[in-house]
Amino acid sequence: MPPWLTRRDREALKFKFSYKIFKLKKTIFTCFFAIAALLLFNTASAQKMGDAAERSAKLTEWMRINLNLTDEQLPAVRDINLNYAKKMDALKTNSLPKSEKMKQITDNDKAKDKELKDILTDSQFQTYLSKKEEIKKKFKENLKQRQQAG
Description:
By secondary structure, the chain is mostly helical.
């Protein structure tokens, strides 16, 4: 400290310095907390979808109920759903351009429908296609609402 400062001025400088350190610590803590919350949110949203086996099991169960799958159809449908769920997971981690990923998703979707058509009856397959279109329509509506809100 410079000798020309009075005792009162020196104490005031110490207080300012202490306050600046306090603000710095508070800022660091806030940043750390924000980063931790972001990482936690990212992990939670990634787990929300579940892994390929979990998603395919849910889809198979939905199909069993809504399409009245027989005991003979169930294992084949389960295998198809798992196969394409794994392909979707592989596409998520792939570094391809977005347009190429979309093309592969569309191709996979068509191939899956073709495989399912061979297993399902005509009425089951038509029900499957109509339910699929309903879900796509709802998804697009939800997407539009999120884009307008956000």
